[in-house]
Amino acid sequence: MGSGKKVARRDNAGSLSRKGLVLNYPQSLSSIERSQTGTVAGAIADLADPMVVTDRLTKRYGDFTALSNCSLSVARGEIFGLLGPNGAGKTTLIRSLLGFLRPTSGSCSVDGFDPMVDGVGLRSRVAYLPGDARLPRHMRGAGVLTFFSEMHPCGDVDRSLRVADRLELNVKTRVAFMSTGMRQKLALAVVLGLDTPLLILDEPTANLDPTVRAAVLDLVVEARSRGRTVMFSSHVLSEIEETCDRVAFLRKGELVRELMMSELFQRHRVTAKTTSVSAPASISVPDSLADRVRVSTITRANQELLCIDTDGDLSPMIGWLDSLQLVGMRIEPLGLRAVYDSVHMGGEVVV
Questions:
Q1: Which tens digits make up the pLDDT trace of 251-296?
Q2: Which residue, 330, 337, 327, is CA-closest to 349?
Q3: pTM for this structure?
Q4: How many structural domains is the chain composed of?
């Protein structure tokens, strides 16, 4: 585990094992040896040497299970999305990976480091943006960037200032007088300015206007192009669709599905009114399409519509769709919304 990666010492012994290395003020980290990371521009690495691994990771609080038997792997150089409503277990998973929580059972590692054995070494490899980032209110933006850049072994204040500039942040403003959106920009400049192998971003575009949101997503994709790994949690499904290579769905503490985005984009949803039938059970699906089609109904604008989820090329289905006497037919990519709704209503879709 982590052979060849040296950690000299930590200041204020024990503080880093309990608190966030990034954006939990004040902490210190002064003597961790800087790590040199290679870049793998373009393609996602396979999972033979993953950046993140969890094995049956479980966290309980008395009778309440926050995370249950979660097993996943995140490849080096990919953007991995985490989706789920509040309380699904996303934050518990992230905090367990960083060593802020001790698992009830199971194990996890980041870049070969076990958070319960060498949490400081692990966090020297990670830049983490929490959903409730705390910043020193008495400092100006530039001072905050300098503080965290000097504290972290992968910090570079010039790089952080460049990120702040791209996010259109005035770093001369004191944190106490910043708006919520400005503080989010500052937190992003701190985290994205750290050249760590792994980025963990929890709702990174919260409180940002559309232009800045787009800049943040560009920075995330650029990080991947330089070989960095990104774990990305968001409630904005379009952001996950635009940036992520793979996504995991959590529900009530359980990992219920993983999905390659490239596979999702091959799926389509057909919605229409029909003049001949009113119930999905009345529709006869040819045997040749039976394993590629799911028929249901949905309600839009107080109108019940026939809904057909399809897998793959639509060409073999055109004749069958024509035979259904559909009115106002609309064909669109299935999208994460359909999968998300299905997962959290306990149903199934063709994925």
A1: 999 999 999 998 888 788 888 876 654 555 567 788 878 778 888 7
A2: 337
A3: 0.77
A4: 2
